[in-house]
Write a structure and sequence with these properties.
This protein has 424 residues and is of the alpha+beta class. α1 links the parallel β1 and β2. The longest helix is centred in the last third of the chain and has 26 residues. The mean pLDDT is 91. α1 packs parallel to α10. The strands form four sheets. Strands 1, 2, 10, 11, 12, 13, 19 and 20 form an eight-stranded mixed beta sheet that branches. It has a seven-stranded mixed beta sheet with strand order 8-7-15-16-17-14-18. Helices cover 34% and strands 25% of the residues. It contains 13 helices and 20 strands.
Length: 424
């Protein structure tokens, strides 16, 4: 009889793989997690640079994610929320659109913002109430169309769509054409209406770090790239083979397809994130700022250091700028266009900002065009003994990465029980 190296091998140490590991550990199932990079976390990483915390691309945690509140210790993360609402650039200035229940002092500014008609605002309030009133699973059983068609069916004006929903959805799903599924849109709207967009006080990398802290150190093997997967066998790039009763593939979509020998399926969307430093100024805000003009490469701007002071040295601000649909451009050309737009918006003061870093993320999220899968009903079992988890097998978001990891672990638990019964 062949001696197994472990019961389960997990390939990939992003949130999905770590969530799978955490849930296997809770079941008392032995596992080994293999990560190609020199640390776990996948796309969620925070670089430290001269007193600044630079997340690899602009990212937030929605506190209303049910799976996140289950997986993380929020108090240990010391979550710092963005202001509930947004500032939208329209014409030559920014206009505040805040949650009237949580920011009543911004009510007058919100009503004056030229984002649409009074009817549009009432429709938005009504829609937010509707998506919160049904069970989360029910949202993924409703009629599905593209978001743009859904918004028009709901009676929203083109002004409201272009000035509010396009930049909002562009930031949340990296999709300024808002072609993604209406189910995805409803889910995202529900999360924004029910909770806060927040940052761990010391950076987004605290999320995977907290998951990994609960696992025995010997169960995680970093800097280990996998070249092939077969039933019960994982072959490493150095031709070493490891055996297990079950294998979990928890890598990004393209890598999962390569390892499993699948044809490319679905597309992905990317972003380019630029970080700048500046002296702290009075106008710096904890609101997310959106481009409602429809012009220029910038989609959204945030100042993470106004949310958590750990993101910048005293007296300084860290400014995050996200550009979409520009991955074909050379980074320096895109940076030049971004700088030009920043000066148009903020004047000569923007010329004094120091460029700290550029992160080009080609595979930031899977595309979410309809028809989409119901993430609550996906089957993690790929073939006998091989399981798959991750956003690409469900829907994009921290919620579904964590959920798919837990579902894979539970499915593996049942599989191992069945296997033991068959050999008894």
């Amino acid at each position: 009889m062949t001696t197994l190296d472990t019961e389960v091998i997990i390939v990939g140490g992003g949130l999905a793989g770590l969530a799978c590991a955490k849930n296997l550990h809770a079941q008392g199932i032995k596992f080994l997690l293999l990560e190609a990079e020199n640390r776990v976390g996948g796309r969620i990483k925070t670089d430290k640079q001269n007193g600044y915390l630079l997340d690899r691309g602009f990212q937030v945690l929605q506190t209303a994610y049910p799976e996140a509140s289950r997986a993380f210790d929020y108090s240990g993360l010391d979550l710092q929320p963005f202001a509930p609402g947004v500032k939208i650039r329209i014409g030559r200035q920014f206009h505040t659109v805040a949650d009237p229940l949580r920011k009543p002092q911004k009510m007058l500014q919100t009503l004056r913002a030229p984002i649409g008609t009074l009817g549009d605002r009432l429709r938005l309030v009504r829609l937010a109430g509707q998506v919160r009133s049904v069970p989360l699973e029910a949202l993924f059983q409703e009629k599905e169309t593209t978001t743009i068609d859904f918004l028009r069916e709901q009676g929203f004006s083109e002004t409201m769509i272009n000035r509010f929903f396009v930049p909002f959805f562009g930031g949340a799903c990296l999709d300024r054409q808002i072609r993604a599924s209406s189910r995805v849109f409803k889910y995202i709207l529900r999360m924004f209406a029910a909770g806060d967009a927040a940052l761990p006080k010391k950076g987004m990398e605290q999320l995977p770090s907290q998951l990994a802290q609960g696992l025995p150190a010997e169960t995680i093997q970093a800097s280990t790239r996998v070249s092939r997967i077969d039933k019960g066998l994982v072959t490493l790039e150095n031709n070493t083979s490891l055996s297990a009763r079950a294998v979990v593939v928890a890598t990004e979509g393209p890598e999962t397809q390569r390892l499993l020998g699948l044809s490319p399926q679905g597309g992905s969307v990317g972003e380019t994130c630029f970080y700048f430093s500046s002296d702290k100024e009075a106008w710096h805000t904890p609101f997310l700022m959106l481009n409602g003009t429809g012009k220029g490469p910038i989609n959204n701007i945030a100042i993470p250091s106004m949310v958590s002071s750990e993101y910048a040295p005293p007296g300084k601000s860290l400014i995050s700028v996200v550009a979409l649909d520009n991955l074909g451009n050379e980074p320096e050309h895109l940076l030049s266009a971004v700088n030009t737009q920043l000066v148009e918006w903020y004047g000569d003061t923007a010329k004094q900002w120091e460029h700290l870093a550029t992160y080009t993320i080609n595979y930031a999220l899977p595309e979410q065009l309809p028809p989409t899968v119901d993430p609550t009903r996906t089957d993690p079992r790929h073939t006998d003994g091989i399981f798959v988890c991750g956003e690409h097998s469900s829907l994009p978001a921290i919620q579904w990465a964590l959920y798919s990891g837990r579902q894979a672990a539970e499915s593996i638990g049942h599989y191992l029980q069945e296997e033991r019964k068959s050999t008894d």
